Amino acid sequence: MADIETLNALSLEASMLYEKTDNIIYYHSMLICRALIAYNTDLTINNEMIEFVTPIKEYLFSRDNWYLYEMELFNNIIYALTIEEALLFSRTLLKRLDSFQYFAECRHIEQNIYTNLSTLCLEYNDFHSAKRFSDIAIEKAKKYTLVYEKVCSELNHAIACIKLTEDKTAYEVIEQNMLIIQYLKFDDLHEHFSNFLKKFEIEINV
User: Fold this and answer.
1) Which of 177, 131, 180 is nearest to 156 (CA)?
2) DSSP assignment of 60-87, as one string?
3) HTH-type transcriptional regulator Rgg C-terminal domain: which residues (predicted)?
4) pLDDT tens for residues 77-106?
5) Domains of the chain with CATH codes
């Protein structure tokens, strides 16, 4: 997660560019930055964050056909959606994926979306859906050789498994992947999953 100072600078730049050009891409960029700033305040989905992404939701609802831009937008606001909204948008997305399957960017976005859907489901304690989406995310990460994304997906999957069955091997998966994150110095990611583990009362030896 980018720091608040950087997000503020990006938000101001996007706002100025939007005023100069009236290009909706800059408007959406500004809203996403502000939503992330709101989230970074206490690392929870709050009303201010939801307020910032509402215009983006309305934009996506208005689009009959999605292209790569709409897919990326959806991926960027998943955390501020309800599960029902996320699943509704996912159905729209899945109808379009085949049209873009040969674009490397699309494959990356597709994997990211499944990972983020699993994270959203964990946030709402829907562990069955979190496990299902992270299963798909792991498969996509392996297929497209996405190491960072595979680590995130495996951690989500392990958390869901523990909450569903107290699967002992899931603890090992978490410990291994947390060590990988530490080794690669993904400090923000390590903090995110440390908070997640604390939230779900999962203790590991790392």
Assistant:
1) 131
2) HHH-SS--HHHHHHHHHHGGGS-HHHHH
3) 18-194
4) 998 899 999 989 988 887 787 788 777 788
5) 103-206 (1.25.40)
Write out the DSSP string of 146-190.
-HHHHHHHHHHHHHHHHHHH--HHHHHHHHHHHHHHHHTT-HHHH
Write down the pTM of the prediction: 0.85
Q: What is the pLDDT of residue 131?
A: 96
d(C-alpha 54, C-alpha 186), whole Å = 30
For 18, how many CA atoms within 13 A lie in the half-sphere containing its CB?
Answer: 14
Helix, strand and coil content of the chain, in percent to the nearest 5, comes to: 80, 0, 20
| Total Cβ atoms within 10 A of residue 85 | 17
- Residue 19: enclosing H or E segment and its boundaries? helix 4-21
Q: Is 43 helix (H, G, I), strand (E, B) or coil?
A: coil
Q: pLDDT by residue (tens digit) across 131-154?
A: 999 999 999 999 888 889 999 999
